[in-house]
Amino acid sequence: xxENWHQNYKNKNREALIAAAKELxxxxxxxxxxxxxxxxxxxxxxxxxxxxxxxxxxxxLAVQVEILESMTGYVKNAASPGMSGQKMLASMLEAxxxxxxxxxxxxxFVLLFDLHYEAYDSGQxxxxxxxxxxxxxxxxxxxxxxxxxxxNDGTLKxxxxxxxxxxxxxxxxxxxxxxxxxxxxxxHVTVQSDLxxxxxxxxxxxxxxxx
Length: 211
Hints:
Helix content: over 70%
Order of helices and strands: HHHHHHHHHH
Largest sheet: none
Oligomer: single chain
CATH class of the largest domain: Mainly Alpha
Structural class: mainly alpha
Radius of gyration: 19 Å
Number of strands: 0
CATH topology of the largest domain: Tetracycline Repressor, domain 2
Shape: globular
Number of helices: 10
Number of domains: 2
């Protein structure tokens, strides 16, 4: 068997553990999920678990990173070549709301993770890993292309600090979407009201940034 086969097999086990943890955390708080539950859900032994993760905290961090990567990737894909910067930004923000509305559990997970991360000691090494991930994402912000395209094509107002604007948009959007994620999925009235509010916010934000 080749080294590539072993690596692929190892990667599949890791992906299966992350998928199982994500599935269980959508059903209950990750504070109530344990290694035994995850191994059973993934069909993987506890011994194999520890070949990939040293602790539950490390696995939960991997889930957080995967959700953020999935969310930002989905939003970036809403922008198409040839779009004006204004259209790119509007399309990406609309896609963001659509993603959140169909993945309320993921958005709530991000909120709970950040609260837990700030309130509890998850270990210095894991904190440094997460901080490096966030730092890299901020420096290579997924909204920068749309903003800079808009500045260059004249559809968005010139901005001396587009990275700071991208951070502001991210924090504002996530705060709004996290509030939406706290509503019960059965509470259709509140969910629909939050969606209307989110779409109105996008319209106001794009209008404010446009020429």
